[in-house]
Each structure stands twice: as structure tokens, then as C-alpha cells.
Amino acid sequence: MKNPPLLPFADDIPRRVIALGTEYRDGQIIAPHNHRRGQLLYGSTGVVMMVTRDGAWVMPPERGMWIPPQVVHEVHMLGRVKIQSLYLLPEAAEAMPARCQVVGISPLMRNLLAEAVALPRHGELDERDAALMRLVEHEMHRLPALPLSLPLPKTDPLLRLCRTFLLHPTPHSTIDEWSEALGLSRRSFTRLFRRETSLSFVAWRQQACLMAALPRLAAGEAVTAVAIDLGYDNPAAFTTMFKRVLGTPPRTYLERQAAPAEGSLGATN
User: Fold this and answer.
1) Distances, alpha carbon 167 to alpha carbons 56, 59, 131, 209, in Å
2) pLDDT value of residue 101
3) Of 246, 64, 177, which is closest to residue 165 (Cα–Cα)?
4) Rg of the chain, C-alpha, whole Å
5) Which residues, at least 6 apart from 94, have a Cβ–Cβ distance to it below 8 Å?
6) What is the β-pairing status of strands 73-88 and 17-24?
7) For residue 262, what pLDDT is reported?
8) Does the N-terminal or the C-terminal CB of the chain have fewer CB atoms within 10 Å?
């Protein structure tokens, strides 16, 4: 999309950082767009997949995602998604990363977001609310990056193949199948794929399958079923890979998502 809409998120509110809450239905897609402000979003439920021309990012429940100002992005909602977002004026976003990132959200930041979305959107903030927003700005620079991104090639038709795979993964796809689809030799395909993504096809496929597994796990599917569908010989191998990437086994991860602090989330607007 050559000229995506520049959406005026919160541009009518003269504050460095403001917070808004939103809910989305399962399967909802937000077309490619960008906005002047940077966005830090946190999802308490559902999974968010965001795609830009440079790559794809998957935000599991109870995690966050940073989108710098002006970055064109397309968003896919996997499950019912409840989001709390911070929108930062460009000058407030200068100290944030220059690239999109999935980030961890600390319990403190989660509670700060719940308080921030409840603030009045217009008028001057009182002393307490202004102090809260200063603390929000301080804490958002401390959020750890998580390895939940996937580079995408720049050129068609390889880009189309990768995007299709990401949305509808077929974990047993082979290099020979993809090279045949592109009319390339196996050797030419492997060189092209690494040049375009900086990853081998096998490594890229594994990361894409992990990203595809997160919505299914968040929806309550059994770890064994997901592991087998993704081509793993046994759940233990899948668990090892999952722990290496996310720092915890799938069952522990799911238990944490299933029991968020009920009172710690503010109502969306």
C-alpha cells in the first residue's frame, strides 16, 4: 500500500504520552496504516500479530509491543483482544527503540497502564496524575525485548510465500517445495532466502511455527497436540525449543496467562 492512512491517534490531546483502551474481535484485521505518535501496546487477552515491510511480530497475552512513530503496520487479532496503549509524541519516543519490538510487561507497568487509561483525556492533569504519567515514561524505557519477531523478505514472490506461511503454517513444508514454487534450484533458493531474511529456511520455519503455536496455546489447546501438529516428534522437543525462546516451559507459561490479576486491569474505553 503506497499511501496508507496516517491515523490521528490522540493527536487532539496535547500531552507527551496518553493512554487509551480498546477491544477487538477474534479475526479482526486492521489494514496497513501509521500514526505520528509512537505506540506501546499491552494485551491482556488474545494474541496480536503485526506485520510490516521488514518483518512480523507476535505479541502473546500479558506481553507488550513497541511501534515507533510513522511505521506502516498491519495488525491481525487472534482471539478476543483487549489492549491498553500508550501513544507517545515523537519527542517522547526519541529514547525508545528505533525498530518494532515485542517486550515484557512488568507487574508495575501493568498496573500503571490500568491507572493511565482511566485518566481524563482532556484538561490539565492534577499533581498525582501527572506524577503517574512521569513514572509511566520512566518505566517504559526499562521493558525487556523478547525474541518474538520474524524477518520477512523484501521481494516478491518470496514475500508472498512467507506471509502465507505465517498466517497458515504448514510445518512440513520443505526447501524443495518452496524452491519449486519459485522456479529456482535448491541452491539458488537457499542463497536467496538467507540473503533476504538473514536466516536459514529451517530456522525461519521453526520460528514461524512457534509464533503460530502461541495463539493455539493461549486458546487452551494441549501442548502435545500443538507440538505434533508443528512437526515435533515429541512434546519434550517442542518444550525445549519453547523454553529457549520464551524462558519458560509451555505449561508454566500458560498457567501464568490463565491467572492474571483480575483487579489489576483497567476498563477499556
Assistant:
1) 11, 14, 42, 10
2) 95
3) 177
4) 20
5) none
6) antiparallel
7) 36
8) N
pLDDT at 254: 67
| Residue 86 Cα distances to 45, 103, 177, 211, 213, angstroms | 17, 14, 43, 24, 27
Residue 6: the pLDDT is 72
Average pLDDT, the chain: 86
Which parts of the chain have pLDDT scores under 70?
Answer: 1-3, 254-269
Closest CA to 81 of 136, 22, 37, 12: 22
Q: What is the 3 state secondary structure string of 170-235?
A: CCCCCHHHHHHHHCCCHHHHHHHHHHHHCCCHHHHHHHHHHHHHHHHHHCCCCHHHHHHHCCCCCH
**Whole-model pTM?**
0.78
| Rounded alpha-carbon distances, angstroms, from residue 66 to 1, 114, 221, 233, 245 | 22, 18, 28, 35, 19
